Amino acid sequence: MFITVSGQKGGVAKTCTSIHLATYWSLKGLKVCVVDADRNRSALAYASRGSLPFKIVPVEAAAKATRSADVVITDGQASTDEEELKHLAFGSDLVILPTAPTARSVELTVEMASLLKKLNVEHSVLLVKVDFRQKRCAQEAREALKKFDLKVLQGDIPLLSAFDKAESQGAAVIKAVDDRGRADPRRMTGWSAYCSIAQQIQCQILKNSSDSNNLIAMTA
Ligand SMILES: Nc1ncnc2c1ncn2[C@@H]1O[C@H](COP(=O)(O)OP(=O)(O)OP(=O)(O)O)[C@@H](O)[C@H]1O
Ligand SMILES: [Mg+2]
């Protein structure tokens, strides 16, 4: 299963999404490799602060490292370079486009989706950083995206400080703790949101490709 997490906008949780999807499938017993395709090496930096249960490699080392993986997740960088996006997207079973519920983020996602449509690459939008006090913005963003005929994954990823804590600890949100080492009270909310998204992605890929391997089918 080849998934690319991409988008033109910075800071919309591409790396966070890559790390959490990878954690989900690793905990399901699959061999997962995250390919860090960002010049800033954000996924590698994230991993270096803790111990994540999967391999992360820079894009230059991807050929060998991904050979035995069941799931390969490529964490893209914020870019408007069509050539770069094209290369990243080609060969992916699905491109995930994390999108914040703001006008600019929605506009850039619509642009990126039209490029992917031209390339005939499957893609789905994931609404991220949704503030529970501003659910209406998320609903409006969802409706706007659907008007452009985009597939939007059900449910969204809530805006939670637990994600920031997890990143600074080099862990998935499920393990986020505060300064005194106490478990973050919202960590399960963030984790369940990503679990639900991973399940939907898996179903979507299985539906689209008859030859996805059995290992993945078994965890669905
Ligand atoms: N759901 C969330 N709630 C709160 N903070 C979040 C959430 N998801 C990610 N973050 C935080 O937002 C910041 C940006 O996230 P991340 O690095 O994943 O974005 P990105 O799209 O990969 O950025 P870049 O374009 O720089 O690669 C990080 O500090 C991360 O911890
Ligand atoms: Mg990133």
Task: Give the structure's gist in a few sentences.
The chain is 45% helix and 13% strand. The protein has 220 residues and is an alpha/beta fold. It has one domain: P-loop containing nucleotide triphosphate hydrolases (Rossmann fold, 3-Layer(aba) Sandwich), CATH 3.40.50.
Please give the structural blueprint.
Blueprint: E1 2-5, H1 14-27, E2 32-36, H2 42-48, E3 55-58, H3 62-65, E4 71-75, H4 82-89, E5 94-99, H5 103-119, E6 123-127, H6 135-147, H7 161-169, H8 187-208, H9 214-219
Parallel strand pairs: 1-4, 1-5, 2-3, 2-4, 5-6
The structure holds adenosine-5'-triphosphate (ATP) and magnesium ion (MG).
List keywords for this structure.
220 residues; globular; 6-stranded parallel beta sheet; binds adenosine-5'-triphosphate; single chain; Rossmann fold; 6 strands; 9 helices; binds magnesium ion; alpha/beta
Structure report:
The protein has 220 residues and is an alpha/beta fold. It has one domain: Rossmann fold, CATH 3.40.50. Helices cover 45% and strands 13% of the residues. It is built from nine helices and six strands. It has helices spanning 14-27, 42-48, 62-65, 82-89, 103-119, 135-147, 161-169, 187-208, 214-219; strands at residues 2-5, 32-36, 55-58, 71-75, 94-99, 123-127. A six-stranded parallel sheet has the order 3-2-4-1-5-6, sandwiched between helices. Strand 5 (94-99), helix 5 (103-119) and strand 6 form a beta-alpha-beta unit. The two termini are 13 Å apart. Magnesium ion binds at residues 14-15, 38, 42, 75. Residues 10-16, 38, 42, 77-78, 128-129, 157, 159-160, 163-164, 167 line the site of adenosine-5'-triphosphate.
